[in-house]
Amino acid sequence: MNSTTTYAVVDIETTGTSIDGTNRMLQFSCVFINNKKISNTFNTMINPGMPIPNEVKKLTGISENDVRHAPFFEDVVGTIYSLLQGTIFVAHNINFDYRFLNEEFLRCGYPEMDIQGIDTVQLTQIVLPTLPSYKLSYLSEYFDIKHSHPHHADSDAFVTARLFLMLQKSIDNLPLKVLEFITRFQDKLLFQTGVCFSNALKKKKMETGVLPSYLEKVGDIVLRTESLTLLKEREVTYPRTALEKKRLFGDFLESRPAQAEMMDEVYRLLLQKKENELMIEAPTGLGKTLGYLIPAAFAALKGHMSVISTATTTLQLQLFEQTIPLLRQIVPFDFTVAILKGSHNYIDLQKFVLSLGKPQSNPSRLLQLRIFVWLTMTKTGDLSELHLTKMQDPLFDEIRHRGIMSLDNSSVYYPHDFVLRQQLKQDTADLIITNHSYLLNHAESLGDFKRKSLIIDEAQHLGNIVLNSNQAVIDFDLIKIISDTLLVKISSQKSFSFRELQQQHFFTDAESKEFAAKIRIIDQRVPVLRNFLEQRFLQQEGKNVDFKEIALKTSKFKGFVKENFADFKQISEAKDSLQTLLLKTKVRFAEFKAQERLDTNAQSFILNFIDCGFELLRAMENWYRFKLDELDQTAAEAVIGLQIPLRQVNGHLRLNFGIFKTKNYLEPVVYSKFEHTIFVGATLLLPEGAGYMSDQLDLSQEIKILKLKGDFDYKKQALGLLVSDAPDIVTDTKDYIEYLGKTLIDILSYNNKQTLVLFNSLEMISVVYNYLRESKILDERLIIAQGVSGSNEKIIKMFELGEGAVLLGSGTFWEGIDLPKDRLELLIITRLPFQSPDTLVNRAKYHLAKRQGKNAFATISLPEAMFRLKQGFGRLIRTRDDQGVMIVLDSRVVSRDYGVKLREAFPDKMPVKIIKSFEIKKNLFDFWEN
Q: Per its UniProt record, what NCBIfam families does this chain match (predicted)?
């Protein structure tokens, strides 16, 4: 920050956001900064000379009464114009404030401002790249800046000024290398925002330039130093008595008898040898996560390390970022934690550095600036730390990690690779946090020769994740696309190709031809097989649906493979040869690079070609399944399916291989790799017992079960409303969507309670969200939609921050996502959560049940729906202080015979009323008022 410059931090309130001459200003506020201090302020209300829209009144709190006696803009334009002359204009979202003011100046006969501008949104995004939100309301809370009247220009301008001063301090502390990089691309930032970094760079160059001890320069970037955690001697005894547990929790938490019982059972199992399995159903709000983490941490003191697996990467991150810090405050000793995910979740440092030298769009370049700063902060390299709304920027495909095999071990970045780091941590960590998908693929290494125990949280999801993650896919059209790309890279006459590599003596002519020959076999023969498959199995299906998915009989498919055996074999041999050639190329590249025998273009091309080659191998990794002996082995347990979008131009034909039952799979593949296995969940048991879940989890019927009781007073805390007059969702989908939209608008317009609306599909969320958007309800309520408003992490944060927010969710929002205390008061279930019977896996499961003489609906569909309802209700009442209403807008829960059974999923003592739609509002009023 230049001490001689005056910064004018501006915020305005207007009648609308369109800058087209139709809107007017309501308030102008400016905070002046000189010499790194707030020196003066100016604020005035402005009479817009037009009605103030209701949504603006609601947002700002400014009404016609507040501006009735205020000056018109024409009365104060001269004062405002002169105040801003000679200053640097600063605003939070400068594109709006600066442009709107200029439009108003022109309207009043003044010339446009021609002063420099700085955007605090972009500044914050670069300097603090991991924040989940850059709204001013969130930033004021994050920085603990008093924000007395959000969406009032005077309060907003003051907060923006304080924020600007804080950001300047952070910019001054950025390393020289980081400031040089940002300054290099400062022209990509809004207005003159980059000046903040170039000014800091000038000052930094006059300093010693020594990096702090926690940072190190690696190649062209600056990274946080990886430090080994040296733990002190940890002589601590597990708290066995109620008094000892009370002392342990101290002021952090209340000690609960059920949670204490759970802790003792987990600790006992982890330390003994006789028993090796335990199932614990711990009701929502009991504190089950700490119920297993505390004893696991104490068991680690005695050398019994644990792997904790949860259902999704979202829950994994929640566990790591929220619960582990709380655990560190509770237990009187330090411990080490590793978080393990698939490599695609991490950044590849070398790929990122290579991307810096390539042309990028402005959004991608801004993202690079943020990542450059983030690398000075992150200890994990996990891209989810960036809390981006979507990971759809092309840059992510360029810099995402592709696994250790894709790394160049001669690179300066190799020793600092984040995936390598996570593997090293795995060997020494007291606690390892992973997700079910990663667990299924890495059970043997995680179990460490049965030296570790396994705690499976959200265990009820493990069965379905097994089925989904064991779906091996062969996408014939993707293979063709990648092989085409490789052939173009080899022989292109317009851009860098193998021709230039031969000139630099990296390849011989014979080697280039061998590469081309092997890839050409794949490129030409795979589409032939694809067409044969479509003609044989899909031709008769017609084109009257958007998407077709059919199950193939193993005998018929095996016959097809035999008929085309020569092609399958030739392609398989070409794939193996290509892998050998790529590995040789990788070794040679390291040698040439070390000897500085390649120019920059050649290095970039070779790395890109190797990446593309390994991408083709990954697309073909399941090609071995066409071997006849492999088909014989999987015939009894596998389902083979063919999928294609029929009405989509160039739709990809995909062949799926998957298992359809977990029996006799999880025990040998997962549980047998660990010393003990503990299954934890809020919904593991049905009224009739653990039989269904034992089958799903491949457990013995004799497994020890600990069923813990919650301490909620459902009679006072909750109410269930079952609507009996909703249209039949199965036969009248169009009517039901209309009904659902109108009913939701009616409910949401009546109250301002924090609301979660649960759906069964993202498609239905999109349809309903669009319906709501066409009404005025979005002007009255903050409505956040999964699949529309960003990543799950972003959605949760928006829901936390929004007052009276409405979240439309499916999938994980039925399950274990922790919504904070007092953040949910109304739960609306739009449709009974039956799984689709038409998926390949479900069709195979139902067919097997039928063969065994069982009723598939009664033994599979109904129990699954009951578990899902239990999970959904679990979102609502999570503490003894919570109060909430659950509304089910699917009349089948009342009208069908199985509705009685489904209602057993609700808590016994919760009052449940069967009502008509028009009675909803009255019942909500009665509950919340009384």
A: dinG_rel, dnaq
Whole-angstrom distance, CA of residue 199 vs CA of residue 551? 65
Q: Six-digit token pair at 111?
A: 């010339």
Q: Among 176-190, 462-476, 829-843, which range has the highest average pLDDT?
A: 176-190
Is 288 known as a binding-site position?
Answer: yes
Query: Is 485 annotated to bind ligand?
Result: no
* Domains defined along the chain, listed by start: 6-210 (3.30.420.10), 336-426 (no CATH), 472-659 (no CATH), 714-929 (3.40.50.300)
- Is 283 one of the annotated binding-site residues? yes
Q: How far is CA 471 from CA 207, 466, 620, 657, 701, in A?
A: 57, 9, 14, 5, 28
- CA distance linking residue 207 with residue 644, whole number of Å: 62
342 assigned binding-site residue: no
Identity of residue 71? P
With a pLDDT cut of 90, the percent of the chain lying above it is: 60
Q: How far are the Cα atoms of 158, 641, 864 from residue 850, in angstroms, in the given order?
A: 69, 20, 17
Secondary structure element (H or E) that encloses residue 267, with its range: helix 257-271
Residue 646: pLDDT over 80: no
Q: Is the pLDDT of residue 389 over 80?
A: no
Residue 853 marked as a ligand binder: no
Per-residue pLDDT, 543: 47
* Token pair in block for residue 728: 């039949």
Please give the Cα distance from 816 to 797 (Å, whole number). 16
Query: What is the SS3 assignment for 621?
Result: coil
What's the rounded Cα separation, in Å, for the pair 138 and 873? 29
Name the band, by pLDDT with cuts 50, 70 and 90, for residue 816: low
Predicted local confidence at residue 173, as pLDDT: 94
Is 289 known to sit in a ligand binding site? yes
| Contact indicator for 15, 52 with CB cutoff of 8 Å | yes
CA 767 to chain centre: 22
To the question of whether residue 312 is assigned a binding role by annotation, the answer is: no
Q: Are strands 547-552 and 638-645 parallel, antiparallel or unpaired?
A: antiparallel
pLDDT greater than 60 at residue 429: yes
Say how many C-beta atoms besides its own lie within 10 A of residue 750's C-beta: 13
pLDDT at 819 over 70: no
Regarding beta strands 755-758 and 806-809, do their DSSP bridges make them parallel or antiparallel, or are they unpaired?
A: parallel
CA distance 856 to 837: 10
Query: Which of 815, 819, 821 lies closest to 806 in space, CA to CA?
Result: 819
Axis crossing angle, helix 153-172 with helix 195-205, rounded to the nearest 10: 30
Taking each continuous run of H as one helix and of E as one strand, the counts in the chain are: 40, 25
pTM of the model: 0.78
392 confidence band (pLDDT: 50, 70, 90): low
pLDDT of residue 779: 72
Give the tokens for residue 649: 């131009």
Q: Which of 406-410, 541-545, 572-576 has the highest mean pLDDT?
A: 572-576
* Residue 286 annotated in ligand binding: yes
* Nearest Cα residue to 74 out of 44, 95, 114, 113: 44
Any idea what DSSP says for residue 538?
I
